[in-house]
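[Automated response] Your request has been received and processed.

Submitted sequence:
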Amino acid sequence: MRFQVPQFIEVEDKIFGPLTFKQFIYIAGSIGITVVLFLFLPKFLAILFALPILIFASMLAFYKINGKPFVNIVEAFVKYTITSKLYIWKKIDKPRTATDQKDAPKPVEQVHVPKLSESKLKELTWNLDVKSKENPIMEENSKTGGNSNI
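Generated structure:
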């Protein structure tokens, strides 16, 4: 039994001509508000208030920022302005005073690590060279990753 898997599920259906349902609501709502403004206000004031409403509605309907609808940006802006903010304070260390130094832990002493002398280093390299020449199979195994044909 075969089932058809829906494709393009992220693309909204065009319901009202070339407009999706959301786009139609944004445009129809802005036109309705504009008509009400023109009925109750003088033409100059109606144009002054209607123009930003029409521009905002057309941006909500058609404008995308980085492939995301403008309504997502408006929603993020509203959430950011309404919610409380978290301010992180970065502490700046003050210079220590004489009273602070009494309570401060004592510094840890450093351990002295002896360095290899040149003669000791030569002796170690010679031992490594001799060991690898005495047992060439071990050297071959280390080069091939441990696989031997013995």
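Summary generated for your ticket: Residues 14-62 form one domain. The chain has a mean pLDDT of 80.
If you did not submit this request, please reply to this message.
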